[in-house]
C-alpha cells in the first residue's frame, strides 16, 4: 500500500499529465486501503479476509466543459491513458456555467494539523480472531440467547491524496478498527435478533470485546415478549443509536445543492429558529481521532468547526464550489469527494450538544409513549419534511420503560419535530454523527 507521500506524487503526476494533454484545469484523487476481517460463528472460525485496493480519479476541465474518469492502473502508461481519455471526454461534454475548481485564493496553504487519524498499527489476524471470539462468546453467554449470527473484528489502514492544477496537494493516512456481534434470543416460540458494535481510529480506544458482546446479547433478550400499543399522538424518545438518524435529513436540507435546486424543506429558514434555543449542533472536522475528521475538504479548502445550529438558529448552508457559484456565495469547506465524479456537499463529525436533564427525567412525566431503539426504512421527504419510519423499541408507561414493541410506524413533519425536540444530558462520541437521548412530543404512532 502506498504511503501518503507516494499517494501525493501519483495525484500530482496525473494532474500534470492531464494539463499536458490539453486540459485547462484538473484535479485528481488517489485512495488506497488494506483491510483484514475475521468472522467467528458458534466459537469456530468462519472466515478470514485480507484485501487491498487502490483507485485514482481524475476530473478535467476544457473551459466550462468537464469530465471525470477513474481507474486502478497507476502505472505511467495507465495514468497517461486515463488523462488522455478524460480530456477527450471533456471536449465532447456540454458546458456547465458553475463548473470549475475551488477558488484559488481560498485553498489551504498551511501545514496540515495532526488530527490523530492513524495509530500506525497493523494487528495480526490472530489478535483479531481473539477479539471476535471474545465478543461472540460474551453475547452467547447472556441467558436467553439461543443462536448466533457471529462475531467479527476488523482492521483497516487507508491513505487519501488530493492534488489540483492550481496549487493544492494534500494527503493523509488513517486507521480504523471495529468489533461486532449479532445474536438471536428465543422464548415461548418467539425469536428476536439484535446486535452491537464499536469502531475507533485507534486500537487502544476500542471498547472491550466482552462489553460489546454482552450488550448485543442483552439487547436481543430485551426484545422478547413484545407488547401492543394503541395508535395516536404521543411523546417519542429516541435513544442515542436511533436519534442520530434525525440529523441526516437536516444535513441534506442545508446542502448547497438542495438549496440551489429549491428542494429543501428548510429553504426559507436560514438565520431563523429551527430548534428550541437549548439545541446546538456542531460540525467538527478537527476532532482528534474523529471518525470523519479531515483537515481539508474534497476540493482542497481548509475545514473548520462550524455551528450548524446555534442555540436553535440555523446558521446557513453547507456548500461545495459548484453549489456556491449557483447561489452567488463562497464555498464553506464542505466538499466531499470520491475517486469518481464531481465533488458533492458533505459534513464531517456532527454532534448535538448535550441538554441539561437525564434520560430518566426526560421521560418521567410520560404516561404513554414510545422509546425507539431501531428504525426501519427511509420514509423522509426532503422537500416537504414529511417523516414516516418503521420502528421498534419499548413502550413507556408512567415514566418507565415497559414491554418491548415492534412493527410500529412513527410519523410527523421534521419542522414540527425539530421545534419540539429536547435533548438529554448523555451525549457520547461513538459515531460519525452523535446525539444524546432525544424527546419529541406530538408524534403519531401507528401500531399494526
UniProtKB/TrEMBL annotation:
<feature type="domain" description="Metalloprotease TldD/E N-terminal">
    <location>
        <begin position="35"/>
        <end position="90"/>
    </location>
</feature>
<feature type="domain" description="Metalloprotease TldD/E C-terminal">
    <location>
        <begin position="231"/>
        <end position="446"/>
    </location>
</feature>
<dbReference type="InterPro" id="IPR045570">
    <property type="entry name" value="Metalloprtase-TldD/E_cen_dom"/>
</dbReference>
<dbReference type="GO" id="GO:0005829">
    <property type="term" value="C:cytosol"/>
</dbReference>
<feature type="region of interest" description="Disordered">
    <location>
        <begin position="330"/>
        <end position="352"/>
    </location>
</feature>
<dbReference type="GO" id="GO:0008237">
    <property type="term" value="F:metallopeptidase activity"/>
</dbReference>
<dbReference type="Pfam" id="PF01523">
    <property type="entry name" value="PmbA_TldD_1st"/>
</dbReference>
<dbReference type="InterPro" id="IPR045569">
    <property type="entry name" value="Metalloprtase-TldD/E_C"/>
</dbReference>
<dbReference type="InterPro" id="IPR035068">
    <property type="entry name" value="TldD/PmbA_N"/>
</dbReference>
<comment type="similarity">
    <text>Belongs to the peptidase U62 family.</text>
</comment>
<dbReference type="GO" id="GO:0006508">
    <property type="term" value="P:proteolysis"/>
</dbReference>
<dbReference type="InterPro" id="IPR047657">
    <property type="entry name" value="PmbA"/>
</dbReference>
<dbReference type="Pfam" id="PF19289">
    <property type="entry name" value="PmbA_TldD_3rd"/>
</dbReference>
<feature type="domain" description="Metalloprotease TldD/E central">
    <location>
        <begin position="120"/>
        <end position="224"/>
    </location>
</feature>
<protein>
    <submittedName>
        <fullName>Microcin-processing peptidase 1</fullName>
    </submittedName>
</protein>
<dbReference type="Pfam" id="PF19290">
    <property type="entry name" value="PmbA_TldD_2nd"/>
</dbReference>
<dbReference type="InterPro" id="IPR036059">
    <property type="entry name" value="TldD/PmbA_sf"/>
</dbReference>
<dbReference type="InterPro" id="IPR002510">
    <property type="entry name" value="Metalloprtase-TldD/E_N"/>
</dbReference>
Amino acid at each position: 500500500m502506498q504511503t501518503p507521500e507516494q499517494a501525493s506524487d501519483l495525484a500530482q503526476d496525473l494532474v500534470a499529465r492531464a494539463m499536458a494533454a490539453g486540459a485547462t484545469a484538473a484535479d485528481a484523487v488517489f485512495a488506497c486501503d488494506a483491510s483484514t476481517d475475521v468472522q467467528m460463528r458458534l466459537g469456530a472460525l468462519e472466515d478470514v479476509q485480507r484485501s487491498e485496493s487502490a483507485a485514482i480519479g481524475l476530473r478535467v476541465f476544457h473551459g466550462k466543459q468537464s469530465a471525470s474518469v477513474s481507474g486502478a492502473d497507476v502505472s505511467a502508461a495507465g495514468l497517461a491513458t486515463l488523462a488522455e481519455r478524460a480530456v477527450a471526454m471533456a471536449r465532447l461534454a456540454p458546458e456547465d456555467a458553475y463548473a470549475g475548481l475551488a477558488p484559488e485564493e481560498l485553498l489551504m496553504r498551511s501545514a496540515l494539523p495532526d488530527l490523530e487519524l492513524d495509530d500506525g498499527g497493523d494487528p495480526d489476524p490472530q489478535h483479531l480472531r481473539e477479539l471476535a471470539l471474545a465478543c461472540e462468546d460474551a453475547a452467547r453467554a447472556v441467558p436467553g440467547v439461543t443462536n448466533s449470527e457471529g462475531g467479527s473484528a476488523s482492521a483497516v489502514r487507508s491513505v487519501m491524496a488530493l492534488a489540483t492544477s492550481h496549487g493544492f496537494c494534500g494527503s493523509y493516512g488513517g486507521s480504523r478498527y471495529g468489533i461486532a456481534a449479532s445474536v438471536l434470543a428465543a422464548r415461548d416460540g418467539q425469536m428476536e435478533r439484535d446486535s452491537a458494535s464499536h469502531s475507533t481510529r485507534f486500537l487502544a480506544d476500542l471498547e472491550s470485546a466482552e462489553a460489546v458482546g454482552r450488550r448485543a446479547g442483552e439487547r436481543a433478550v430485551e426484545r422478547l415478549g413484545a407488547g401492543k400499543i394503541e395508535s395516536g399522538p404521543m411523546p417519542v424518545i429516541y435513544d442515542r443509536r436511533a436519534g442520530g438518524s434525525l440529523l441526516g435529513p437536516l444535513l441534506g436540507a442545508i446542502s448547497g445543492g438542495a438549496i440551489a435546486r429549491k428542494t429543501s424543506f428548510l429553504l426559507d429558514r436560514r438565520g431563523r429558529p429551527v430548534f428550541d434555543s437549548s439545541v446546538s449542533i456542531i460540525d467538527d472536522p478537527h476532532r482528534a481521532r474523529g471518525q470523519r475528521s479531515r483537515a481539508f475538504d474534497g476540493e482542497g479548502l481548509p475545514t473548520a468547526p462550524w455551528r450548524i445550529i446555534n442555540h436553535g438558529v440555523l446558521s446557513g448552508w453547507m456548500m461545495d464550489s459548484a453549489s456556491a457559484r449557483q447561489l452567488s456565495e463562497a464555498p464553506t469547506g464542505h466538499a466531499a469527494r470520491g475517486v469518481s465524479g464531481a465533488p458533492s456537499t458533505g459534513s464531517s463529525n456532527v454532534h448535538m450538544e448535550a441538554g441539561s436533564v437525564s434520560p430518566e427525567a426526560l421521560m418521567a412525566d410520560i404516561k404513554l409513549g414510545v422509546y425507539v431503539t431501531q428504525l426501519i426504512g427511509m420514509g423522509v421527504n426532503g422537500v416537504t419534511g414529511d417523516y414516516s419510519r418503521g420502528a421498534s423499541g419499548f413502550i413507556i408507561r408512567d415514566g418507565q420503560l415497559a414491554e418491548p414493541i415492534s412493527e410500529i410506524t412513527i410519523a410527523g413533519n421534521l419542522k414540527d419535530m425539530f421545534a419540539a425536540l429536547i435533548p438529554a444530558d448523555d451525549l457520547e462520541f461513538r459515531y460519525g454523527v452523535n446525539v444524546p437521548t432525544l424527546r419529541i412530543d406530538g408524534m403519531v404512532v401507528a401500531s399494526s
